[in-house]
Amino acid sequence: MAGELPEVLAGIALDVGFAKRVTVRRGGEPRRDGRCVVYWLQRAQRAIDNPALEIAVACGNSLGLPVVAYFSVIPNYPNSNWRHYYFLQQGLHDVAEEMRKRGVGFVIRRPSDGDTLEAFLEEVGAAMVVGDENVCREPERWRSVLAKKLKIPFLTVDADVVVPSAVFEKSFVLLHHFRPKLHAQLPEFLKPIEKVDVSHEWNLKLRSYDLAADITLGFDKLDRSVGPVDAFVGGTKAALRRLKEFTDTQLKDYDETRNHPEICGTSQMSPYLHYGHISPLTIALAVRDVEARGKAGKEVCDKYLDELIGWRELAVLFCKYNPNYDNWECAEPWAKKTLTEHTGDKRPWSYSLAQLERAETHDELWNAAQREMVRDGWMHNYMRMYWAKKILEWSPDVATAFERAVILNDRYELDGRDPNGYAGIAWAIVGKHDRPWFDRPVFGLVRYMSGESTGKKFDSKRYIEQQRVGARSAL
Ligand SMILES: Cc1cc2nc3c(=O)[nH]c(=O)nc-3n(C[C@H](O)[C@H](O)[C@H](O)COP(=O)(O)OP(=O)(O)OC[C@H]3O[C@@H](n4cnc5c(N)ncnc54)[C@H](O)[C@@H]3O)c2cc1C
Protein backbone atom coordinates (compact mmCIF):
# COMPACT_ATOMS: atom_id res chain seq x y z
CA MET A 1 0.00 0.00 0.00
CA ALA A 2 1.70 3.24 -1.15
CA GLY A 3 -0.05 5.70 1.17
CA GLU A 4 -2.55 6.05 3.99
CA LEU A 5 -5.96 4.63 3.24
CA PRO A 6 -8.67 7.27 3.17
CA GLU A 7 -10.98 7.01 6.14
CA VAL A 8 -13.73 5.61 3.97
CA LEU A 9 -11.73 2.40 3.60
CA ALA A 10 -10.75 2.26 7.24
CA GLY A 11 -14.45 1.82 7.98
CA ILE A 12 -14.72 -1.19 5.67
CA ALA A 13 -13.82 -4.61 6.98
CA LEU A 14 -11.29 -5.24 4.23
CA ASP A 15 -9.92 -8.73 4.07
CA VAL A 16 -6.14 -8.51 4.67
CA GLY A 17 -5.47 -9.92 1.21
CA PHE A 18 -7.71 -7.26 -0.32
CA ALA A 19 -5.95 -4.46 1.53
CA LYS A 20 -2.60 -5.61 0.14
CA ARG A 21 -3.91 -5.13 -3.38
CA VAL A 22 -4.59 -1.43 -2.86
CA THR A 23 -2.26 1.44 -3.77
CA VAL A 24 -3.32 4.90 -2.68
CA ARG A 25 -2.42 7.12 -5.66
CA ARG A 26 -4.05 10.12 -4.08
CA GLY A 27 -5.16 10.18 -0.48
CA GLY A 28 -7.47 12.52 1.36
CA GLU A 29 -11.16 12.35 2.08
CA PRO A 30 -13.89 11.70 -0.49
CA ARG A 31 -15.71 14.75 -1.82
CA ARG A 32 -18.40 15.58 0.74
CA ASP A 33 -21.07 16.46 -1.81
CA GLY A 34 -20.01 13.57 -4.09
CA ARG A 35 -22.86 11.72 -5.79
CA CYS A 36 -21.14 8.44 -6.67
CA VAL A 37 -17.95 6.38 -6.64
CA VAL A 38 -16.36 5.92 -10.06
CA TYR A 39 -14.68 2.65 -10.96
CA TRP A 40 -12.29 3.39 -13.82
CA LEU A 41 -12.04 0.07 -15.60
CA GLN A 42 -9.05 -0.40 -17.87
CA ARG A 43 -7.11 -3.65 -17.39
CA ALA A 44 -9.68 -5.79 -15.55
CA GLN A 45 -12.48 -5.84 -18.14
CA ARG A 46 -14.92 -7.96 -16.17
CA ALA A 47 -17.48 -7.79 -13.37
CA ILE A 48 -16.73 -11.21 -11.89
CA ASP A 49 -13.86 -11.94 -9.47
CA ASN A 50 -12.64 -8.39 -9.83
CA PRO A 51 -11.15 -7.01 -6.58
CA ALA A 52 -11.05 -3.47 -8.00
CA LEU A 53 -14.80 -3.53 -8.57
CA GLU A 54 -15.44 -5.06 -5.15
CA ILE A 55 -13.43 -2.30 -3.48
CA ALA A 56 -15.29 0.34 -5.47
CA VAL A 57 -18.60 -1.18 -4.33
CA ALA A 58 -17.42 -1.39 -0.71
CA CYS A 59 -16.44 2.30 -0.85
CA GLY A 60 -19.81 3.18 -2.39
CA ASN A 61 -21.64 1.27 0.35
CA SER A 62 -19.59 2.90 3.07
CA LEU A 63 -20.31 6.38 1.66
CA GLY A 64 -23.95 5.59 0.95
CA LEU A 65 -23.37 6.18 -2.78
CA PRO A 66 -23.90 4.20 -5.98
CA VAL A 67 -21.02 3.08 -8.20
CA VAL A 68 -20.56 3.73 -11.89
CA ALA A 69 -17.90 1.96 -13.97
CA TYR A 70 -16.26 4.02 -16.69
CA PHE A 71 -14.44 2.63 -19.72
CA SER A 72 -12.52 4.86 -22.08
CA VAL A 73 -11.87 3.61 -25.62
CA ILE A 74 -8.41 5.03 -26.30
CA PRO A 75 -7.98 5.46 -30.08
CA ASN A 76 -4.22 4.94 -30.27
CA TYR A 77 -3.44 2.33 -27.64
CA PRO A 78 0.24 1.44 -28.26
CA ASN A 79 0.69 -1.22 -30.97
CA SER A 80 -2.99 -2.04 -31.20
CA ASN A 81 -5.02 -2.69 -34.35
CA TRP A 82 -8.54 -3.61 -35.41
CA ARG A 83 -8.07 -7.25 -34.26
CA HIS A 84 -7.49 -6.11 -30.68
CA TYR A 85 -10.36 -3.62 -30.54
CA TYR A 86 -12.78 -6.17 -32.02
CA PHE A 87 -11.96 -8.71 -29.29
CA LEU A 88 -12.12 -5.98 -26.65
CA GLN A 89 -15.56 -4.87 -27.87
CA GLN A 90 -16.88 -8.44 -27.67
CA GLY A 91 -15.85 -8.43 -24.02
CA LEU A 92 -17.54 -5.10 -23.26
CA HIS A 93 -20.98 -6.62 -23.96
CA ASP A 94 -20.46 -9.03 -21.05
CA VAL A 95 -19.19 -6.25 -18.78
CA ALA A 96 -22.29 -4.16 -19.54
CA GLU A 97 -24.63 -7.07 -18.79
CA GLU A 98 -22.93 -8.10 -15.55
CA MET A 99 -22.66 -4.53 -14.21
CA ARG A 100 -26.37 -4.04 -14.88
CA LYS A 101 -27.18 -7.23 -12.95
CA ARG A 102 -25.12 -5.99 -10.00
CA GLY A 103 -26.70 -2.55 -9.90
CA VAL A 104 -23.51 -0.80 -11.01
CA GLY A 105 -23.69 1.80 -13.79
CA PHE A 106 -21.56 1.29 -16.90
CA VAL A 107 -20.51 4.04 -19.26
CA ILE A 108 -18.32 3.82 -22.35
CA ARG A 109 -16.84 7.02 -23.72
CA ARG A 110 -14.17 7.85 -26.29
CA PRO A 111 -11.56 10.62 -25.95
CA SER A 112 -11.84 11.01 -29.74
CA ASP A 113 -15.42 12.26 -29.18
CA GLY A 114 -14.05 14.92 -26.83
CA ASP A 115 -14.70 12.89 -23.65
CA THR A 116 -12.14 12.60 -20.89
CA LEU A 117 -12.17 10.80 -17.58
CA GLU A 118 -11.69 14.07 -15.68
CA ALA A 119 -14.73 15.60 -17.41
CA PHE A 120 -16.75 12.49 -16.55
CA LEU A 121 -15.74 12.72 -12.88
CA GLU A 122 -17.04 16.28 -12.83
CA GLU A 123 -20.21 15.39 -14.72
CA VAL A 124 -21.24 12.65 -12.27
CA GLY A 125 -19.89 14.37 -9.15
CA ALA A 126 -17.43 11.62 -8.22
CA ALA A 127 -16.60 11.40 -4.52
CA MET A 128 -13.58 9.22 -5.25
CA VAL A 129 -12.09 7.01 -7.97
CA VAL A 130 -11.03 3.38 -7.83
CA GLY A 131 -9.02 1.92 -10.71
CA ASP A 132 -7.26 -1.30 -11.60
CA GLU A 133 -3.53 -1.65 -12.34
CA ASN A 134 -1.39 -2.37 -15.38
CA VAL A 135 2.40 -2.58 -15.12
CA CYS A 136 3.03 -1.71 -18.77
CA ARG A 137 4.60 1.70 -19.39
CA GLU A 138 1.82 3.66 -21.06
CA PRO A 139 -1.17 2.59 -18.94
CA GLU A 140 0.89 3.07 -15.78
CA ARG A 141 1.70 6.60 -17.00
CA TRP A 142 -2.04 7.35 -17.39
CA ARG A 143 -2.58 6.46 -13.76
CA SER A 144 0.29 8.63 -12.54
CA VAL A 145 -0.89 11.57 -14.64
CA LEU A 146 -4.44 11.25 -13.34
CA ALA A 147 -3.24 11.03 -9.73
CA LYS A 148 -1.44 14.37 -10.14
CA LYS A 149 -4.51 16.07 -11.58
CA LEU A 150 -7.17 14.80 -9.17
CA LYS A 151 -8.39 16.49 -6.01
CA ILE A 152 -10.37 13.47 -4.81
CA PRO A 153 -8.99 10.13 -3.54
CA PHE A 154 -7.73 7.75 -6.18
CA LEU A 155 -6.97 4.13 -5.32
CA THR A 156 -5.75 1.45 -7.66
CA VAL A 157 -6.19 -2.26 -7.07
CA ASP A 158 -3.89 -5.01 -8.33
CA ALA A 159 -6.73 -7.09 -9.72
CA ASP A 160 -5.16 -9.34 -12.38
CA VAL A 161 -2.70 -11.42 -10.42
CA VAL A 162 -3.26 -14.02 -7.73
CA VAL A 163 -0.66 -12.53 -5.36
CA PRO A 164 -0.44 -8.71 -5.49
CA SER A 165 2.91 -7.76 -7.01
CA ALA A 166 3.62 -5.16 -4.30
CA VAL A 167 4.03 -8.05 -1.84
CA PHE A 168 7.36 -8.98 -3.45
CA GLU A 169 8.82 -5.47 -4.00
CA LYS A 170 11.29 -6.74 -6.65
CA SER A 171 11.73 -8.96 -9.68
CA PHE A 172 13.47 -12.35 -9.69
CA VAL A 173 16.26 -13.72 -11.87
CA LEU A 174 14.90 -17.28 -11.97
CA LEU A 175 11.55 -18.92 -11.34
CA HIS A 176 13.03 -21.19 -8.71
CA HIS A 177 14.08 -18.10 -6.71
CA PHE A 178 10.55 -16.74 -6.93
CA ARG A 179 8.58 -19.97 -6.44
CA PRO A 180 9.14 -20.50 -2.67
CA LYS A 181 8.23 -16.86 -1.94
CA LEU A 182 5.15 -17.14 -4.12
CA HIS A 183 4.03 -20.40 -2.53
CA ALA A 184 4.40 -18.90 0.94
CA GLN A 185 1.78 -16.30 -0.07
CA LEU A 186 -0.73 -18.61 -1.76
CA PRO A 187 -2.69 -19.62 1.37
CA GLU A 188 -3.55 -15.96 1.87
CA PHE A 189 -4.44 -15.15 -1.74
CA LEU A 190 -5.54 -18.32 -3.51
CA LYS A 191 -9.10 -18.19 -2.20
CA PRO A 192 -12.43 -16.92 -3.50
CA ILE A 193 -13.02 -13.18 -3.71
CA GLU A 194 -15.91 -12.11 -1.58
CA LYS A 195 -18.63 -10.49 -3.65
CA VAL A 196 -19.88 -7.28 -2.04
CA ASP A 197 -23.60 -6.61 -2.46
CA VAL A 198 -24.43 -3.14 -3.79
CA SER A 199 -26.44 -1.20 -1.23
CA HIS A 200 -27.19 1.82 -3.45
CA GLU A 201 -28.06 0.82 -7.00
CA TRP A 202 -27.14 3.03 -9.94
CA ASN A 203 -30.30 4.30 -11.62
CA LEU A 204 -29.24 7.27 -13.72
CA LYS A 205 -29.27 7.08 -17.51
CA LEU A 206 -26.04 8.53 -18.82
CA ARG A 207 -24.77 9.01 -22.34
CA SER A 208 -22.68 5.98 -23.32
CA TYR A 209 -21.17 4.77 -26.58
CA ASP A 210 -23.59 2.32 -28.20
CA LEU A 211 -22.01 -1.12 -28.38
CA ALA A 212 -24.15 -1.95 -31.41
CA ALA A 213 -21.76 0.33 -33.34
CA ASP A 214 -18.10 -0.48 -33.96
CA ILE A 215 -16.13 1.21 -31.17
CA THR A 216 -13.37 2.07 -33.63
CA LEU A 217 -15.64 4.12 -35.93
CA GLY A 218 -13.75 7.23 -36.99
CA PHE A 219 -10.37 5.96 -35.75
CA ASP A 220 -8.66 7.05 -38.97
CA LYS A 221 -5.17 6.08 -37.89
CA LEU A 222 -6.13 2.59 -36.71
CA ASP A 223 -4.30 -0.22 -38.50
CA ARG A 224 -7.13 -2.20 -40.10
CA SER A 225 -4.84 -4.49 -42.07
CA VAL A 226 -4.87 -6.91 -39.11
CA GLY A 227 -8.48 -7.98 -38.75
CA PRO A 228 -10.62 -9.98 -36.32
CA VAL A 229 -10.00 -13.73 -35.96
CA ASP A 230 -12.42 -16.68 -36.09
CA ALA A 231 -10.47 -18.75 -33.58
CA PHE A 232 -11.41 -16.72 -30.48
CA VAL A 233 -14.47 -14.83 -29.27
CA GLY A 234 -13.84 -12.22 -26.60
CA GLY A 235 -15.58 -11.83 -23.26
CA THR A 236 -16.07 -13.37 -19.85
CA LYS A 237 -18.75 -15.79 -21.04
CA ALA A 238 -16.51 -17.21 -23.76
CA ALA A 239 -13.61 -17.40 -21.32
CA LEU A 240 -15.68 -19.33 -18.77
CA ARG A 241 -16.96 -21.69 -21.48
CA ARG A 242 -13.43 -22.42 -22.66
CA LEU A 243 -12.23 -22.84 -19.06
CA LYS A 244 -14.95 -25.41 -18.39
CA GLU A 245 -14.12 -27.30 -21.56
CA PHE A 246 -10.42 -27.33 -20.63
CA THR A 247 -10.87 -28.36 -17.01
CA ASP A 248 -13.53 -30.99 -17.88
CA THR A 249 -11.63 -32.71 -20.65
CA GLN A 250 -8.04 -31.57 -21.21
CA LEU A 251 -6.48 -30.55 -17.91
CA LYS A 252 -5.90 -34.15 -16.77
CA ASP A 253 -3.55 -34.69 -19.73
CA TYR A 254 -1.98 -31.21 -19.70
CA ASP A 255 1.47 -32.46 -18.73
CA GLU A 256 1.61 -34.76 -21.74
CA THR A 257 -0.13 -32.65 -24.35
CA ARG A 258 1.09 -29.15 -23.46
CA ASN A 259 4.18 -29.48 -25.64
CA HIS A 260 2.25 -30.68 -28.69
CA PRO A 261 1.38 -27.74 -30.91
CA GLU A 262 -0.60 -30.07 -33.20
CA ILE A 263 -3.03 -30.88 -30.35
CA CYS A 264 -5.35 -28.53 -28.50
CA GLY A 265 -3.92 -29.44 -25.09
CA THR A 266 -3.46 -26.07 -23.41
CA SER A 267 -6.11 -23.83 -21.89
CA GLN A 268 -5.92 -20.94 -24.39
CA MET A 269 -6.75 -18.60 -21.55
CA SER A 270 -4.06 -16.08 -22.50
CA PRO A 271 -6.18 -13.72 -24.66
CA TYR A 272 -8.84 -13.62 -21.92
CA LEU A 273 -6.26 -12.99 -19.23
CA HIS A 274 -4.71 -10.23 -21.27
CA TYR A 275 -7.99 -8.29 -21.53
CA GLY A 276 -8.96 -9.13 -17.98
CA HIS A 277 -12.05 -10.99 -19.26
CA ILE A 278 -11.21 -13.61 -16.67
CA SER A 279 -9.28 -13.45 -13.42
CA PRO A 280 -6.30 -15.78 -12.89
CA LEU A 281 -7.95 -16.52 -9.56
CA THR A 282 -11.11 -17.84 -11.25
CA ILE A 283 -8.95 -20.17 -13.33
CA ALA A 284 -6.75 -21.29 -10.44
CA LEU A 285 -9.73 -22.05 -8.20
CA ALA A 286 -11.42 -24.01 -11.00
CA VAL A 287 -8.25 -26.07 -11.36
CA ARG A 288 -8.07 -26.72 -7.63
CA ASP A 289 -11.74 -27.73 -7.68
CA VAL A 290 -11.14 -30.28 -10.44
CA GLU A 291 -8.26 -31.64 -8.40
CA ALA A 292 -10.40 -31.85 -5.25
CA ARG A 293 -13.06 -33.79 -7.19
CA GLY A 294 -10.40 -36.25 -8.32
CA LYS A 295 -10.89 -35.38 -12.01
CA ALA A 296 -7.22 -34.52 -12.46
CA GLY A 297 -4.13 -35.43 -10.46
CA LYS A 298 -2.31 -33.09 -8.08
CA GLU A 299 0.85 -33.18 -10.13
CA VAL A 300 -0.77 -32.04 -13.35
CA CYS A 301 -2.78 -29.33 -11.56
CA ASP A 302 0.39 -28.06 -9.87
CA LYS A 303 2.11 -27.98 -13.24
CA TYR A 304 -0.68 -25.90 -14.74
CA LEU A 305 -0.69 -23.50 -11.78
CA ASP A 306 3.07 -23.16 -12.06
CA GLU A 307 2.49 -21.70 -15.54
CA LEU A 308 -0.57 -19.64 -14.66
CA ILE A 309 0.74 -18.18 -11.42
CA GLY A 310 4.49 -18.89 -11.34
CA TRP A 311 5.59 -17.94 -14.85
CA ARG A 312 2.86 -15.37 -15.37
CA GLU A 313 3.47 -13.44 -12.15
CA LEU A 314 7.23 -13.68 -12.64
CA ALA A 315 6.59 -11.86 -15.95
CA VAL A 316 4.48 -9.20 -14.23
CA LEU A 317 7.28 -8.51 -11.74
CA PHE A 318 9.82 -8.42 -14.58
CA CYS A 319 7.87 -5.63 -16.34
CA LYS A 320 7.00 -3.80 -13.13
CA TYR A 321 10.61 -3.50 -12.00
CA ASN A 322 12.52 -3.41 -15.30
CA PRO A 323 12.00 -0.27 -17.43
CA ASN A 324 13.74 -2.01 -20.37
CA TYR A 325 11.25 -4.88 -20.40
CA ASP A 326 10.65 -4.53 -24.15
CA ASN A 327 14.21 -4.25 -25.46
CA TRP A 328 17.37 -6.30 -25.23
CA GLU A 329 18.87 -4.06 -22.51
CA CYS A 330 16.78 -6.06 -20.04
CA ALA A 331 19.34 -8.90 -20.37
CA GLU A 332 21.28 -10.13 -17.34
CA PRO A 333 25.00 -9.23 -17.36
CA TRP A 334 26.06 -12.77 -18.41
CA ALA A 335 23.70 -12.65 -21.40
CA LYS A 336 24.78 -9.14 -22.45
CA LYS A 337 28.40 -10.24 -22.37
CA THR A 338 27.94 -13.43 -24.36
CA LEU A 339 25.60 -11.90 -26.95
CA THR A 340 27.97 -8.96 -27.45
CA GLU A 341 30.89 -11.35 -27.95
CA HIS A 342 28.89 -13.07 -30.70
CA THR A 343 27.66 -9.91 -32.43
CA GLY A 344 29.83 -10.39 -35.49
CA ASP A 345 29.03 -14.09 -35.98
CA LYS A 346 27.93 -15.05 -39.45
CA ARG A 347 24.19 -15.73 -39.55
CA PRO A 348 23.24 -18.89 -41.48
CA TRP A 349 20.15 -17.18 -42.94
CA SER A 350 19.13 -13.58 -43.01
CA TYR A 351 15.61 -12.21 -43.46
CA SER A 352 14.00 -8.79 -43.37
CA LEU A 353 11.11 -8.02 -41.04
CA ALA A 354 8.77 -8.05 -44.06
CA GLN A 355 9.95 -11.53 -45.09
CA LEU A 356 9.41 -12.81 -41.58
CA GLU A 357 5.99 -11.21 -41.40
CA ARG A 358 4.93 -12.90 -44.67
CA ALA A 359 6.31 -16.27 -43.45
CA GLU A 360 8.79 -16.38 -46.32
CA THR A 361 11.66 -18.32 -44.79
CA HIS A 362 13.30 -21.61 -45.76
CA ASP A 363 11.93 -23.19 -42.55
CA GLU A 364 8.46 -24.70 -42.98
CA LEU A 365 7.98 -25.22 -39.25
CA TRP A 366 8.72 -21.58 -38.51
CA ASN A 367 6.50 -20.42 -41.37
CA ALA A 368 3.65 -22.55 -40.01
CA ALA A 369 3.96 -20.92 -36.57
CA GLN A 370 4.01 -17.45 -38.11
CA ARG A 371 0.89 -18.33 -40.14
CA GLU A 372 -0.88 -19.61 -37.04
CA MET A 373 -0.25 -16.31 -35.28
CA VAL A 374 -1.27 -14.14 -38.24
CA ARG A 375 -4.46 -16.09 -38.86
CA ASP A 376 -5.61 -17.05 -35.33
CA GLY A 377 -4.10 -14.30 -33.18
CA TRP A 378 -2.50 -16.98 -31.04
CA MET A 379 0.49 -19.31 -31.26
CA HIS A 380 1.26 -22.39 -29.22
CA ASN A 381 3.85 -21.86 -26.43
CA TYR A 382 6.28 -24.43 -27.79
CA MET A 383 6.26 -22.74 -31.17
CA ARG A 384 6.61 -19.27 -29.60
CA MET A 385 9.92 -20.35 -28.07
CA TYR A 386 11.19 -21.71 -31.38
CA TRP A 387 9.78 -18.77 -33.34
CA ALA A 388 11.61 -16.12 -31.28
CA LYS A 389 14.90 -18.03 -31.15
CA LYS A 390 14.96 -18.24 -34.94
CA ILE A 391 14.33 -14.51 -35.17
CA LEU A 392 17.57 -14.05 -33.20
CA GLU A 393 19.39 -16.45 -35.52
CA TRP A 394 18.18 -14.73 -38.71
CA SER A 395 18.44 -11.05 -37.69
CA PRO A 396 21.53 -8.83 -38.05
CA ASP A 397 21.95 -8.36 -34.28
CA VAL A 398 20.28 -9.07 -30.96
CA ALA A 399 18.73 -5.59 -30.56
CA THR A 400 17.04 -5.87 -33.97
CA ALA A 401 15.91 -9.41 -33.22
CA PHE A 402 14.26 -8.33 -29.95
CA GLU A 403 12.58 -5.39 -31.65
CA ARG A 404 11.25 -7.54 -34.51
CA ALA A 405 9.87 -10.16 -32.15
CA VAL A 406 8.08 -7.47 -30.14
CA ILE A 407 6.63 -5.86 -33.28
CA LEU A 408 5.26 -9.13 -34.65
CA ASN A 409 4.10 -10.52 -31.32
CA ASP A 410 2.33 -7.30 -30.31
CA ARG A 411 0.82 -6.85 -33.74
CA TYR A 412 -0.71 -10.27 -34.31
CA GLU A 413 -1.20 -12.02 -30.97
CA LEU A 414 -4.48 -11.32 -29.21
CA ASP A 415 -2.54 -11.74 -25.98
CA GLY A 416 0.31 -9.50 -27.18
CA ARG A 417 1.28 -6.18 -25.56
CA ASP A 418 1.39 -8.09 -22.28
CA PRO A 419 4.08 -8.70 -19.63
CA ASN A 420 4.05 -12.38 -20.66
CA GLY A 421 4.94 -11.42 -24.22
CA TYR A 422 7.89 -9.25 -23.20
CA ALA A 423 9.13 -11.83 -20.69
CA GLY A 424 8.69 -14.64 -23.24
CA ILE A 425 10.67 -12.78 -25.89
CA ALA A 426 13.32 -11.89 -23.32
CA TRP A 427 13.51 -15.57 -22.30
CA ALA A 428 13.99 -16.72 -25.89
CA ILE A 429 16.34 -14.00 -27.15
CA VAL A 430 18.40 -12.89 -24.16
CA GLY A 431 18.02 -15.87 -21.81
CA LYS A 432 15.94 -13.97 -19.23
CA HIS A 433 14.73 -16.23 -16.41
CA ASP A 434 16.97 -18.92 -17.88
CA ARG A 435 20.51 -20.06 -17.13
CA PRO A 436 23.61 -20.03 -19.35
CA TRP A 437 23.86 -23.09 -21.63
CA PHE A 438 26.69 -24.12 -24.01
CA ASP A 439 28.58 -21.65 -26.12
CA ARG A 440 27.64 -21.66 -29.79
CA PRO A 441 27.57 -19.21 -32.71
CA VAL A 442 25.16 -16.25 -32.62
CA PHE A 443 23.50 -17.38 -29.34
CA GLY A 444 26.62 -17.56 -27.21
CA LEU A 445 25.49 -19.07 -23.92
CA VAL A 446 21.79 -18.38 -24.54
CA ARG A 447 19.78 -21.60 -24.96
CA TYR A 448 19.48 -22.75 -28.57
CA MET A 449 16.67 -24.68 -30.26
CA SER A 450 17.34 -26.47 -33.51
CA GLY A 451 14.66 -27.04 -36.12
CA GLU A 452 15.62 -30.67 -36.44
CA SER A 453 15.24 -31.62 -32.78
CA THR A 454 12.21 -29.36 -32.18
CA GLY A 455 10.45 -30.93 -35.16
CA LYS A 456 11.00 -34.43 -33.76
CA LYS A 457 9.46 -33.73 -30.35
CA PHE A 458 5.90 -33.63 -31.70
CA ASP A 459 4.05 -34.39 -34.92
CA SER A 460 5.44 -31.36 -36.70
CA LYS A 461 4.30 -32.58 -40.12
CA ARG A 462 0.73 -32.55 -38.89
CA TYR A 463 1.17 -29.09 -37.37
CA ILE A 464 2.62 -27.72 -40.63
CA GLU A 465 -0.26 -29.26 -42.57
CA GLN A 466 -2.83 -27.78 -40.14
CA GLN A 467 -1.44 -24.31 -40.68
CA ARG A 468 -1.27 -24.80 -44.46
CA VAL A 469 -4.91 -25.81 -44.85
CA GLY A 470 -6.03 -23.11 -42.45
CA ALA A 471 -7.38 -25.28 -39.63
CA ARG A 472 -8.39 -23.26 -36.61
CA SER A 473 -6.21 -24.11 -33.67
CA ALA A 474 -9.08 -24.30 -31.23
CA LEU A 475 -12.44 -23.22 -29.95
C1 LIG B 1 8.52 -15.72 -27.48
C2 LIG B 1 7.33 -15.83 -26.58
C3 LIG B 1 6.30 -14.91 -26.69
C4 LIG B 1 5.19 -14.99 -25.84
N1 LIG B 1 4.22 -14.04 -25.96
C5 LIG B 1 3.18 -14.05 -25.09
C6 LIG B 1 2.20 -13.03 -25.14
O1 LIG B 1 2.30 -12.09 -25.94
N2 LIG B 1 1.17 -13.09 -24.25
C7 LIG B 1 1.05 -14.12 -23.35
O2 LIG B 1 0.08 -14.13 -22.58
N3 LIG B 1 1.96 -15.08 -23.28
C8 LIG B 1 3.03 -15.08 -24.12
N4 LIG B 1 3.98 -16.06 -24.02
C9 LIG B 1 3.87 -17.07 -22.95
C10 LIG B 1 3.09 -18.35 -23.37
O3 LIG B 1 3.57 -18.82 -24.59
C11 LIG B 1 1.60 -18.11 -23.48
O4 LIG B 1 1.14 -17.49 -22.29
C12 LIG B 1 0.82 -19.42 -23.66
O5 LIG B 1 1.26 -20.07 -24.82
C13 LIG B 1 -0.64 -19.10 -23.76
O6 LIG B 1 -1.37 -20.23 -24.09
P1 LIG B 1 -2.33 -20.92 -23.06
O7 LIG B 1 -3.21 -19.90 -22.44
O8 LIG B 1 -2.99 -22.05 -23.76
O9 LIG B 1 -1.30 -21.47 -21.98
P2 LIG B 1 -1.44 -22.62 -20.89
O10 LIG B 1 -0.34 -23.58 -21.12
O11 LIG B 1 -2.80 -23.15 -20.84
O12 LIG B 1 -1.07 -21.83 -19.56
C14 LIG B 1 -2.05 -21.14 -18.78
C15 LIG B 1 -1.61 -19.72 -18.57
O13 LIG B 1 -0.36 -19.71 -17.91
C16 LIG B 1 0.41 -18.59 -18.35
N5 LIG B 1 1.61 -19.07 -19.01
C17 LIG B 1 1.81 -20.23 -19.68
N6 LIG B 1 3.08 -20.29 -20.14
C18 LIG B 1 3.68 -19.14 -19.78
C19 LIG B 1 4.98 -18.61 -19.94
N7 LIG B 1 5.94 -19.27 -20.59
N8 LIG B 1 5.24 -17.39 -19.44
C20 LIG B 1 4.31 -16.70 -18.76
N9 LIG B 1 3.06 -17.15 -18.57
C21 LIG B 1 2.75 -18.36 -19.06
C22 LIG B 1 -0.44 -17.86 -19.37
O14 LIG B 1 -1.11 -16.81 -18.74
C23 LIG B 1 -1.40 -18.93 -19.85
O15 LIG B 1 -2.59 -18.40 -20.36
C24 LIG B 1 5.11 -16.02 -24.86
C25 LIG B 1 6.14 -16.95 -24.77
C26 LIG B 1 7.24 -16.86 -25.61
C27 LIG B 1 8.34 -17.87 -25.48
Detailed description of the structure:
With 475 residues, the chain is an alpha/beta fold. It has 3 domains: 7-159, Rossmann fold (3-Layer(aba) Sandwich); 236-321, Serine Threonine Protein Phosphatase 5, Tetratricopeptide repeat; 328-469, Orthogonal Bundle (DNA Cyclobutane Dipyrimidine Photolyase, subunit A, domain 3), CATH 1.10.579.10. The protein has 20 helices and 6 strands. The protein has a 6-stranded mixed sheet, sandwiched between helices. Strand 2 (36-40), helix 3 (51-63) and strand 3 form a beta-alpha-beta unit. Helix 15 (364-376) packs across helix 20 (460-469). The longest helix is centred in the middle third of the chain and has 24 residues, at 298-321. The radius of gyration is 23 Å and the shape is globular. 48% of the residues are buried. The mean pLDDT is 95. Flavin-adenine dinucleotide (FAD) is lined by residues 258, 266-270, 273-274, 307-308, 311-312, 315, 381, 384-385, 388, 409, 413, 415-416, 418, 420-421, 424-425, 427-428.
- Ligands, deduplicated: flavin-adenine dinucleotide
What is the CATH T-level topology of the largest domain? Rossmann fold
Shape: globular
CATH architecture of the largest domain: 3-Layer(aba) Sandwich
As an assembly, this protein is single chain
Order of helices and strands: HHEEHEHEHEHEHHHHHHHHHHHHHH
Computed over alpha carbons, the radius of gyration is 23 Å
Number of domains: 3
CATH class of the largest domain: Alpha Beta
Main sheet strand line-up: 1-6-5-2-3-4
Count the E strands: 6
